[in-house]
Amino acid sequence: MKNSRPIARTVGTLMLAAFLLYGIGSSIATTASPGALLTTGAVMMLLNSAAVIAIGALMLPVLRPHAPAVAVGYLATRIFEGGFLAVGAVALLMASAGTNFLAYNIAMAGLGIGSLFFCVALYRSRLIPRFLSVWGFVGYASFAAGCFLELAGVAGAGLASTVPGGLFETFFAIWLIARGFGSTAAITVTAPA
Prior knowledge:
Layout: H1 5-31, H2 36-63, H3 68-93, H4 97-125, H5 130-151, H6 157-178
Pfam family, one: DUF4386
InterPro entries: DUF4386 (IPR025495)
Protein name: DUF4386 domain-containing protein
């Protein structure tokens, strides 16, 4: 058995870092003219992609004892998200804002759907307080719906729908840093073959 506290802190830190990297990076990249500033923004967006994939990888051994299929699914969700967000960053470097818009909304819709299962697993396992799991479920459902509406042409729906999920991710990250996972979160580490 291994203590999950360092993993919780790392996941929380990566969630906050990803939020800042993408938020600042996309703001820079979508408003800058071609040059060093645009490249800086795109690199920050690519670093976000690495961070979100790392979150999925770090959660794998924590979730696996409680919900093995969800653990793998959550990693796949984060890889999907990171991949599409990386496509969007590269698209901005190639002056294709439309492709970035599509990539972002596809990534976030996928994150929203995949994270519904994640929140159910968190609820059942009591790795975090149940109110947080419910908040996350509602937030991710809202987020996915908003992204699908954006893709269907309803301008502004995605932005409005990010509030519950964004607040959840921020609070969840701070919770993980400050409190960690619940007592059921001791993880099993398999010895290398």
